[in-house]
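Example record

One chain of 145 residues, shown exactly as stored in the release files.
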Amino acid sequence: MEDIMRHIIVGCGSAAHGRGELEEARRLGLFPGVCVHVIGFVDAAGCGAQATAFDYDRSIHHTVESHKQVALDVFDKSDVTWDFQASHAPDLDAFTHAIRRYGRGCVIVTSLAGRHIRRERSWMRLCRRLQCRLVIVDCADHIEA
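Predicted structure tokens for this chain:
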């Protein structure tokens, strides 16, 4: 791992509370001075069409707490910052915001599934433009761009 890399941005979906993405970020090899930023994407679609605002808020709270616990299982507490937002899926806006906030040349670890896989090319173009490394976790396998 290059010493120039200082930030790993992990985009976690609600499936398995992001364990695959978090473990892949860990596998990349953290060293002192690297900060892990966990962006939790809360998939509230599972609440159903008739969900109340209370159900939605409860789902978000449960997912955020689950993400935090999994992240603390994978990383040392001092390495992790939290940047959770409610969203039906990871999108470019959230990653663009994180890249601009934490600097060029960071590493993004995320998974793409179902209808969102079509965004993969856009993410790769974004990463090339901002000189970031994109690691896409797909079940047990991963590809790097």
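Notes: Residues 53-74 form the longest helix (22 residues).
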